[in-house]
Amino acid sequence: MNFFSFHLMPWPYLAPPRRFLAEHEAAWVTLSNEEYDPVRGRELYERYLGELVMAEELGLDGVVVNEHHQNAYGLMPSPNLMAAALTQRTERVRICVLGNALPLYNPPTRVAEEMAMLDVLSGGRLIAGLVVGGGPEYYSYNVDPTEARPRFREAVELVLQAWTRPGPFAFDGEYYQLPYVNPWPRPLQQPHPPVWIPGLGSPSTISYCAERGFGYMGVAYYAPPETFARQAVAYHQAVAAAGRPYDPELLGWLTTVYVAESDEQAVEEAAPHLAYFQGTLAAGFVGVGKVWMPPGYIDPPALVQFLSDLRSMVGGARPSDPKQAVWHRSPLIGSAATVRERLLAYVSELRIGTVLALLQFGSLPAALTAKSARLYAEEVVPYVREAAEKHFASLPTGSPGPGS
Amino acid sequence: MTKIEPRVDGRAAGEVTARTIEVAAGPSAVAVLRVGAGRPLLYLHGLCDVHSAWPGSEPTPFVAGLAERFDVAAPALPGYSGGAPVSALHDMEDYVFHLTDLLGGLGWEQVDVVGHSLGGWLAAELALRRPERVARLALLSPLGLHVAGVEVPPVFGALAPRGIGGFGESRRLLFADAEGEAALRVLPDGMAEADQLRWFTGLAGAARLGWKAPHFQSRRLAERLHRITVPTLLVVGEQDVLVPETAARAWVEGLAAADLFEVPDAGHCLTLEWPEGASEVAAYLWR
Known about the structure:
The complex is a heterodimer of chains A (404) and B (287). Chain A is of the alpha/beta class.
């Protein structure tokens, strides 16, 4: 069982959703970088890095950084720089870069090089996340979205070969032709660091991960937990179809977590910051405003479905009870007892072996982040870890997951 | 596939009937709207009037207008519903091969070509690379030409969907009257899901050409324009933000033999906001 602390390093100084959306179409692509204040930015980096380092002190298993460009949602255009800093400030935890957006690197051997550096620097602690990149990034980098998926798949092959094939060799692909592939250094972990791929539920991504033995990390910040449950079941089925033994740790759940002294207090403390995260920062790909989803990036039927789901999610009636309103999309906000019970239920039922907890989200301030992280690490994680590992051990090895 | 014999007997008498047939274009089968009689004319649709090429649909009034004097074939462009898949089309050269394959499938040696918007770019590139196949040319708010110093809004940014609030920004980009009948017919705020699917499918097809060359602007076309020597009519809407007047003038100056016609109160989707213009275009091609 893996418990990771995931950070987006968001910009917390924009207006709350309603006021923000009255003036801006999105927090991505076109939100002017004049909103960014480097002096405050410097303090934020220091604080956010500290929050990741704290995960090691609290006994969690790993830290996660990720890549986004030209937005207020996540201030890590180069997550590898943050991961490099973390190699120097931590000793034990796994460091997961989730991930590098391969089509944005030309050639993507750059990713093979930097990740090998991180693996060597960290003493073999890297988990290599590889990702297509978000829709907004295709606008920001003007990369052709109509070939995003095949280009990504080819880039994955290139990176894996760069790590495992003795160089120099020639790579002759549809998108990349390189006469000399021979990166120094090579990764410390052999044959290569674990590969994880984040996804929003695309069936082709899920089956790709299952077939290749990559971890599938379902991004579930916005949708109700049932949405992630469907992805998990699809992953179980895909692993069974691929004829592979089921390894729970290759199924990850990216979700917001906030723990406080009581359910009421947790909801009250978290709600405005969660609203800022889901309403202000996510405006641009999830929300009422502009959806930076470029043509051809996902199949048109999937896009129409996505927009339809989005409209029912943001336009639908919200429960009037504040707790139910929060729990509808974010069930792991509550007292330690509530979060413990719910997390164990999801983890056992869906055979999730990796929980990537977003312990800081939106504008959640440092003191509340630290308080919640400590409660989570001390009162939730040990209990769920022990119970879940016992549960997984009781299942026959390689048994298909529930629902298959 | 229904084999259609080209007719060269001038005007058609009687009413216009349209049908959509499948035509072989090399390895692909393409849905082609056939309507009218007379001299053969290839109509290449734009970003907005794609429903003229949807299987089973009626021609737009503009295409119906052309069909009063021409034997019109209006294919679905690659990537659009009914069009060839774009997976094997990598650049403009492939698109021109595709169009010549299509002319072969139609059994047409030489035709008049009317291209609008995206189709205008394709028509110009066809005339540039296969001059022997094109008799006369009409380019209606053609995309494709990069003119240094002329800024256009980021097309795909403006066309990005919205969570709630419909297609107002897309209409403002493409039409002079964003709340007019023509705009709301193509891009209504509460667009039915089947129509959304067609619209986004078409945009993905258009992005194949229009994304890498940002804003559908080739950096090579300007220096090659003089190689198009057929008589060319260029028509632009005065409110077209994607092909502003400076761009229209650059087209005319670059082309060897061109006439410019400007339409007041029309935006980029010229054929929808100026359906009566079909007779002017037809008259130019006949003269």
